[in-house]
Design goal:
Layout (H helix, E strand, L loop, with lengths): L4 H4 L1 E12 L2 E12 L3 E5 L6 H8 L7 E6 L2 E2 L4 H7 E4 L11 H11 L4 H14 L15 H12 L6 E5 L7 H16 L3 E6 L2 H7 L2 E6 L2 E7 H7 L4 E7 L5 H7 L3 E7 L2 E6 L2 H15 L3 E7 L3 H12 L9
Helix pairs in contact: 4-5, 4-6
Bound molecules: adenosine-5'-diphosphate (ADP) and magnesium ion.
Length: 324
């Protein structure tokens, strides 16, 4: 069946998706689209419903309502076809600890029905691309955590899927392993695939993603390009000030109406200013009155983290911890 032009540009389309576990509405009318050949980040705190969504998209979990299409096909109506065109890496690896790395890859290829020749050549090139050639003969169970994650992703790519779903790919990895995995994700997209990743890590979303959706409590609270989201969260700018003597956030908030938020960070006070000019004028007035000096002052655009904190505050119910 020929798909129309717009359909071929959309990797994943979700409309009005809902899922409950008993009384808990894990997903409550979620809708979004994932463009092809991009990194799409599905961002949210723990318990937001990210894994539930990914499991439904990949046909691992049934939905209660709504529509899901992957590459123009309904995953529930066409599970075999859809699964042949996607790869999934969940939080736990499905590889065999006692099998060698190369054998794990070849065995995965076998499950996908690849010919023996194809299995061998795919395993060879993935071991190479993923920097795991010197571990080809090592049992999977003996690898470091970062290498295990890499091999699990390699296995999910054996059948050259068009979309790769990664559920919290860097969670639990040390900094260098997480960084090398992010490089790998960029290369996978450079090779023409679409990557759908979930993360609770704002830095990761900001680093990797072209488009993000922010999910809180089973609802989408924000979506778009990272830069647009930062802009939309307000003209709020962050000011970091170190004073010549100890000043509390409360001291400043009471007398500087242009400052919305104050928190202590590395010995300096970090403020969110609704208007930069007014905030600085009010800070200077405060300092003059109290006979305090500002030793250092830094101004920056809000990061995605700042945006996310504002969203959480606005949502008024989640603090980034698991919901009951
Ligand atoms: N199998 C399940 N049974 C009951 N509740 C579940 C189940 N799986 C997830 N939940 C709950 O659904 C909500 C969303 O979970 P999940 O999709 O795992 O969130 P995330 O991946 O964003 O951390 C959470 O409150 C979680 O406790
Ligand atoms: Mg999860």
């Amino acid at each position: 069946m020929r798909q129309n032009e717009s359909e071929t540009q959309v990797a994943v389309r979700v409309a009005g998706l809902s899922k409950a576990y008993g009384d808990l509405r894990a997903l409550d009318g979620v809708s979004f689209e994932v463009p092809m050949r991009r990194v799409f980040a599905y961002l949210g705190p723990n318990g937001a419903g990210k894994t539930t969504t990914i499991n439904i998209l990949c046909g691992l979990l049934e939905r209660d309502g709504g529509e899901v299409s992957i590459l123009g096909r309904d995953v529930a109506a066409d599970p075999v076809l859809v699964k042949s065109r996607i790869g999934v890496v969940t939080e736990n690896s499905n590889l065999y600890p006692e099998l060698h790395c190369r054998r794990n890859l070849e065995y995965t290829g076998e499950l996908y029905g690849l010919s023996a020749d194809r299995r061998r050549s795919r395993a060879e090139s993935l071991l190479n691309d993923f920097g795991l050639m010197d571990k080809a003969g090592a049992p999977f169970g003996t690898l470091s955590r970062g290498m295990k994650r890499r091999l699990t992703i390699a296995a999910a790519l054996m059948h050259e899927p068009e979309i790769l779903f990664l559920d919290e790919p860097t969670t639990g990895l040390d900094v260098p392993s997480a960084r090398s995995l992010r490089d790998l994700i960029r290369r996978i997209v450079g090779g023409g695939a679409t990557v759908f990743l979930t993360t609770h890590n704002l830095f990761e979303a900001e680093e990797l993603a072209d488009e993000i959706v922010v999910l809180i409590g089973g609802r989408i609270v924000e979506r778009g390009k990272v830069s647009d989201i930062k802009r939309r969260i307000g003209g709020a700018r962050c000011l970091t000030v170190s004073f010549s003597q100890s000043v509390s956030g409360g001291d400043v908030l009471g007398v500087c109406p242009a400052i919305r938020n104050a928190e202590l960070q590395d010995g300096a006070l970090k403020f969110e200013a609704s208007d930069l000019h007014d905030a600085i004028a009010q800070l200077v007035a405060f300092c003059n009155k109290e006979n305090i000096r500002m030793n250092d002052i830094g101004i920056r655009e809000p990061s995605l983290e700042d945006a996310f904190v504002s969203l959480l505050a606005g949502a008024g119910k989640s603090d980034g911890k698991d919901r009951p």
